[in-house]
């Protein structure tokens, strides 16, 4: 396993290999090596490699529930607004995130036939209308809840989560193998820098080229991982390390079985972690989830954010993520 980190004056320092059976990349700054193929970390007997305050990338001894006890009906708990099974075979989960924001989880099926729409539409409501079953009139309460990013309607009437559409039966090709698990270069390209992270960054900043020191990205192939914004400050040379984030995005591809995909968030160091997502990614599926603070502007809200993935025994997963941070007094201009 190899890692890349940013040191003083923006120079790169390389630490080589921690484990030859694995290939990982964690960098402060910009990574454009999206065509790099990853090798699975399959050494389940190795102890977890710790990275700072409890973060890790590697095997986990965590016990997972049996398959019959795994439930994706409410991945955001009582903040789940709707679970939508699109005709493409993709699944979408809409959740109230607080601060007037709605989160959208997207899971694309294993055969690679569905295309991500998360970066195609401007608002969660537009995504909802695009992926809802054809010719279905969407309930007014659901549209209002997604618009407002709140499960409680204006008259304080709690919204009952909706389930729309029917899950698509896996095709024979899906049963044989996964498009992205079997094509690591395609995975790295589709969910790498140019095709995934640049559009995400441009939602928040005027020119991402001026903001490389505000980004922390990582990717790997493992059986378990956990990454936290505050564990990875962007730099020590530019004032205090603003270790929290205003936004984050992670992709998880599960191979040879299911992977539990989790996300957490808190406003201050003394706050307990709030679970934002608990979702079982299907064998061969690719799940994407974003986290948001209330404002990305300098001196405004920045939250601590955490992603976690745990594959069931015999399975592994690929992940790639980005945390968007900020440092006062630099040329990086937030929108």
From TrEMBL:
Region (Disordered): 49-74
Superkingdom of the source species: Bacteria
Cleaved signal peptide residues: 1-26
Keywords: Signal
PROSITE patterns referenced in this protein's UniProt entry, alphabetically: PROKAR_LIPOPROTEIN
Protein name: Lipoprotein
Organism: Polyangium jinanense
């Amino acid at each position: 396993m190899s890692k890349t980190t940013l040191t003083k004056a923006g120079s790169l320092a390389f630490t080589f290999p921690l484990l030859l059976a694995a290939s990982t990349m964690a960098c402060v700054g910009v990574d454009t090596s999206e065509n790099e193929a990853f090798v699975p970390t399959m050494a389940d007997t190795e102890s977890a490699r710790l990275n700072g305050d409890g973060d890790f990338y590697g095997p986990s001894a965590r016990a997972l529930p049996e398959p019959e006890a795994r439930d994706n009906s409410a991945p955001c708990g009582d903040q789940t607004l709707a679970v939508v099974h699109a005709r493409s075979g993709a699944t979408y989960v809409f959740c109230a995130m607080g601060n007037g924001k709605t989160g959208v989880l997207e899971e694309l099926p294993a055969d690679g036939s569905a295309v991500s729409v998360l970066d195609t539409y401007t608002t969660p409501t537009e995504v909802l209308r695009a992926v809802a079953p054809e010719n279905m009139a969407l309930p007014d309460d659901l549209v209002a809840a997604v618009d407002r990013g709140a499960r409680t309607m204006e008259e304080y009437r709690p919204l009952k989560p909706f389930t729309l559409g029917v899950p698509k039966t896996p095709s024979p090709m899906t049963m044989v193998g996964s498009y992205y698990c079997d094509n690591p270069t395609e995975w790295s390209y589709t969910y790498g820098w140019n095709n995934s992270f640049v559009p995400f960054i441009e939602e928040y900043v005027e020119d991402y080229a001026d903001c490389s020191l505000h980004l922390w990205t990582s990717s790997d192939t493992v059986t378990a991982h956990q990454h936290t914004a505050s564990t990875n400050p962007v730099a020590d040379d530019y004032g205090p390390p603003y270790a929290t984030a205003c936004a984050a995005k992670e992709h998880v591809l599960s191979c040879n079985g299911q992977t539990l995909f989790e996300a957490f968030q808190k406003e201050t160091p003394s706050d307990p972690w709030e679970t934002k997502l608990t979702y079982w990614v299907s064998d061969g599926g690719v799940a994407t989830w974003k986290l948001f603070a209330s404002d990305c502007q300098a001196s405004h809200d920045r939250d601590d954010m955490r992603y976690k993935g745990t594959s069931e025994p015999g399975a592994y997963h690929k992940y790639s993520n980005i945390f968007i941070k900020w440092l006062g007094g630099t040329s990086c201009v937030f929108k």
